[in-house]
Amino acid sequence: DGGITQSPKYLFRKEGQNVTLSCEQNLNHDAMYWYRQDPGQGLRLIYYSQIVNDFQKGDIAEGYSVSREKKESFPLTVTSAQKNPTAFYLCASSSTPGRGNSPLHFGNGTRLTVT
Amino acid sequence: QKEVEQNSGPLSVPEGAIASLNCTYSDRGSQSFFWYRQYSGKSPELIMFIYSNGDKEDGRFTAQLNKASQYVSLLIRDSQPSDSATYLCAVMFTGGGNKLTFGTGTQLKVEL
User: Fold this and answer.
1) CA–CA dist B86, B71 (Å, integer)
2) How many CB atoms lie within 10 A of CB A54?
3) Nearest Cα residue to A108 out of A7, A38, A19
4) Containing H/E element for A85?
5) Under a CB-based contact definition with an 8 Å cutoff, are residues B34 and B44 in contact?
6) Is the dihedral of CA B30, B50, B37, B12 positive or negative?
7) Of A9, A100, B51, B74, which residue is least crowded by CB atoms under 10 Å?
8) What is Dmax (Cα atoms) for chain B?
9) Is the CB of residue B102 less than 8 Å away from at least one CB of chain A?
């Protein structure tokens, strides 16, 4: 079945450690995205990529980094510079960048807790 | 700053009633509008999208778009307890590539 796989589902880290969240899709989608969701809040865009080997900062990119070496994969690293990393992280993909009717499809999310 | 506004709720409706969820957005030139449903602790699921003025129906769901008023709504007919969730409105703003800006969501509770 086609879909977006995020792993792990839950992740616990100590403050000061970098951590990488995995996102893999087999939908053959060109565009991939990372959003963050805090309790009672909407989704905020961290980074997005419309094509392999290219990505752009979203609204809250500070303290995060990404890579897009393969079409299927878009890992997100939460660095120690991110001041409030505890959140629910959602990866998404869409088929046609720039097309207005190309909806985002989401993975199941990774819940990161940093103590 | 381009914004999407939703009433956080909760919006409570009795089972079988029509639930009406509303969303306003700041950019008059926006082209595409999406409604997602999110159950507690889960990821958002696409319900439907709309990009032409007027109504678009899909089963019990109807999206309504009024670009002049910068307003998009979602109607849920014959509401069921399983419809209890948070509904997120998302807008693709002009000149923003293929990325969506989300509202904070409206919590819907369908009561027996």
Assistant:
1) 19
2) 9
3) A7
4) none
5) no
6) positive
7) A9
8) 44
9) yes
- Cβ-contact A64, A83 below 8 angstroms: no
Strands (E), chain A: 4-7, 10-13, 19-25, 31-37, 43-51, 54-57, 64-66, 76-78, 87-94, 105-106, 110-114
Band (pLDDT 50/70/90 cuts) for residue A100 is: low
**CB neighbourhood size of B1 (10 A):** 5
Do A42 and A57 contact (CB within 8 A), yes or no?
no
Chain B closest-CA separation from residue A102 CA (Å):
8
- Distances from the Cα of B14 to the Cαs of B8, B79, B80, in angstroms? 18, 7, 8
- Mean pLDDT (chain A) is 92
Nearest to A60 by CA among A31, A82, A86: A82
Give the confidence band of B93 by pLDDT, cuts at 50, 70, 90: confident
Q: Which of A58, A90, A94 sits opposite B98 (nearest CB)?
A: A94
- CB A64, CB A48: distance < 8 Å: no
Whose tokens are 């969730």? That residue is: B85
DSSP letter, residue B93:
-
Query: Is the CB of residue B89 less than 8 Å from the CB of residue B34?
Result: yes
Cis peptide before A97 (omega within 30 of 0): no
